[in-house]
C-alpha cells in the first residue's frame, strides 16, 4: 500500500484549485453583432466561402452593420463598419486578460469579463481596464466579401 505524503496531498490540492480558478476565467463563446443595441446570434466560424484567389471569406460586407460590427468568435476576429463602406478588423481578444469580446453596441466593442470597451473605428481603448488597443488585422474587400489580406 502506498502512503500519501503531505507534499503529494498539497500538490494535488493545488492542482485542483488552479483548474477550478481557470474554469472560472473561461472565455465567452457567443457571437454578437449590432449597430445600436445588443443582439446575439449563433457562433460564427468565419469561413463563409472561398473568395477570389482561393482565400476563405471571413464575412460578407452585407453582414456588417454600419456603425456596428460582427464578432467571429472561432476566428477571434471582430469586423466593424464605422461608416458606410469603411471595413475594419481587429483581434477579438481583449488586451486586459485575454477574454474574447462579447458585444458591439453604440460604436463600442465590449468585453464581458471586466468591462473594457474599444472604439469600432480604430480599436482604441474607450474604457479600461484594458491597457492597449485591439490589434488591427489587415483585410481586403472584393465583390462584397471580406478576407484576410
Approximate shape: globular
Second-tier CATH architecture: 3-layer Sandwich
Q: Give the uncertain stretches in residue-range form.
A: 9-49
Listing every helix as H and every strand as E from the N terminus to the C terminus, the arrangement reads HEEEEEEEEEEEE
CATH-derived topology: Rieske Iron-sulfur Protein
Mean pLDDT reading: 77
The CATH superfamily name is Rieske [2Fe-2S] iron-sulphur domain
Number of helical stretches of at least 4 residues: 1
- Radius of gyration equals 19 Å
- Biggest sheet, in brief? 5 strands, antiparallel
* Residues in helices, as a percent range: 10-25%
Please give the domain count: 1
The CATH top-level class label: Mainly Beta
- With strands numbered from the N-terminus, the spatial order across the biggest sheet is 2-1-4-5-6
Instruction: Tally the beta strands.
Output: 12
Spatial gap, N to C terminus: 62 Å
Based on secondary structure, the structural category is: alpha+beta
Polypeptide structure, described:
There is one protein chain. With 149 residues, the protein is an alpha+beta fold. The protein has a single domain (27-148), classed as Rieske Iron-sulfur Protein (3-layer Sandwich). It contains 1 helix and 12 strands. The strands form 3 sheets. A 5-stranded antiparallel beta sheet has the order 2-1-4-5-6, with no helix packed on it. A 4-stranded antiparallel beta sheet has the order 7-8-9-10, with no helix packed on it. A 3-stranded antiparallel beta sheet has the order 3-12-11, with no helix packed on it. The N and C termini lie far apart (62 Å). Mean pLDDT is 77; it is low at 9-49.
